[in-house]
């Protein structure tokens, strides 16, 4: 599925591999209580939470930004034919992402920049495609930008023999380095004159979020600082996938403060929709406004 938003000088597309109630709420957000979910059910159901299965709704997608001759992809989803037995919903997918890219006039060979927020398996999948028994860069002419702190963290882990539980370092990250297409980046770095990175550690040590301005609109690609809108109300709730929950909490609060202060459109990595969330301050912390009837 393709979602599209036009901004001044920029076309932004979301290419959805899938969206659905895939993750058990009590496992994915262990500090969230059943009571907190229940008292928010009016706006959570059914779009963001399925009470019958107690699963939260997440999407897996790629963000594609087209501005003149620049084509930038922010995060690369799960990818095709990647074996991910620990995550049944992500195992061995076969979705028409390459056809969608051609449909929006962004064929793989024309993509210039592929930008990672962090190096978890559900963000790096389309970095590579299978060619025979090898994995090769999907975007042969692109520079791939990896957060330097994450590269150091995950490569050290991999090369010291620590289990690569999803196999994503080996099939989606290492082939990019071996093909000499990798560039390491840090907070403050700019990409293609469009994106500026901001350090957002906690979910992974080196996670970066990115701001993008187009005319008088500013988007914040907020990565996995928030997996679910309920975390705006309860910022202390980190996900099970966060490597350092306390740091992730502090980062989440700082991102929410930034969003409230600037009025930017917040686009977390697992939220489906191109308009983004608006964050305001409330007596209890933060409030959330999600655009009505976008889909
Ligand atoms: Zn993720």
Task: Walk me through this protein's architecture.
This protein is α+β, with helices and mostly antiparallel strands. It has a single domain (2-289), classed as Metallo-beta-lactamase, Chain A. It has helices spanning 25-28, 34-39, 41-44, 97-103, 121-124, 148-159, 168-178, 230-233, 245-262; strands at residues 2-7, 10-24, 49-50, 55-67, 70-76, 113-115, 128-131, 134-137, 143-147, 182-185, 190-191, 195-199, 208-214, 217-223, 265-268, 278-282, 285-289. The strands form four sheets. Strands 1, 2, 3, 4, 5, 6, 9 and 10 form an eight-stranded mixed sheet that branches. The chain has a five-stranded mixed sheet with strand order 11-12-13-14-15, with no helix packed on it. β5 (70-76), α4 (97-103) and β6 form a beta-alpha-beta unit. Zinc ion is lined by residues 120, 122-123, 224, 269-270.
SSE blueprint and pairings:
Elements (H helix, E strand, L loop, with lengths): L1 E6 L2 E15 H4 L5 H6 L1 H4 L4 E2 L4 E13 L2 E7 L20 H7 L9 E3 L5 H4 L3 E4 L2 E4 L5 E5 H12 L8 H11 L3 E4 L4 E2 L3 E5 L8 E7 L2 E7 L6 H4 L11 H18 L2 E4 L9 E5 L2 E5 L6
Parallel strand pairs: 5-6, 6-9, 9-10, 14-15
Antiparallel strand pairs: 1-2, 2-4, 3-4, 4-5, 7-8, 11-12, 12-13, 13-14, 16-17
The protein binds zinc ion.
Quick synopsis:
The chain is of the alpha+beta class and 295 residues long. The chain contains nine helices and 17 strands. Strand 5, helix 4 and strand 6 (113-115) form a beta-alpha-beta unit.
């Amino acid at each position: 599925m393709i979602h599209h938003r036009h901004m001044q000088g920029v076309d932004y597309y979301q290419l959805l591999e899938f969206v659905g109630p895939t993750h058990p709420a009590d496992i994915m957000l262990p500090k969230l209580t059943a009571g907190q979910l229940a008292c928010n059910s009016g706006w959570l159901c059914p779009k963001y939470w399925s009470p019958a299965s107690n699963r939260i709704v997440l999407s897996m997608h790629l963000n594609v930004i087209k501005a003149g001759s620049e084509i930038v992809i922010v995060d690369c989803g799960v990818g095709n034919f990647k074996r991910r037995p620990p995550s049944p919903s992500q195992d061995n997918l076969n979705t028409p992402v390459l056809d969608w890219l051609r449909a929006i006039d962004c064929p793989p060979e024309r993509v210039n920049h592929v930008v990672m927020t962090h190096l978890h398996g559900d963000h790096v999948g389309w970095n590579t495609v299978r060619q025979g028994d090898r994995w090769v860069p999907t975007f042969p002419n692109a520079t791939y930008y990896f957060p330097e702190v994450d590269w150091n963290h995950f490569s050290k882990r991999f090369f010291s023999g620590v289990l690569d539980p999803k196999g994503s370092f080996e099939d989606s990250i290492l082939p990019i380095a071996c093909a000499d297409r990798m560039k390491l980046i840090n907070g403050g770095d700019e990409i293609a004159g469009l994106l500026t990175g901001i350090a957002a550690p906690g979910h992974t040590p080196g996670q970066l979020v990115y701001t993008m301005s187009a005319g008088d609109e500013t988007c914040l690609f907020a990565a996995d600082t928030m997996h679910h809108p309920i975390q705006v109300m309860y910022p202390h709730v980190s996900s099970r996938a966060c490597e350092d929950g306390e740091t992730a909490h502090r980062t989440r609060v700082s991102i929410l403060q930034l969003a409230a202060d600037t009025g930017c459109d917040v686009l977390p990595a697992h939220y489906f929709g191109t308009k983004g969330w608006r964050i305001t301050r409330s007596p209890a912390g933060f409030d959330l406004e999600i655009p009505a009837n976008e889909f």
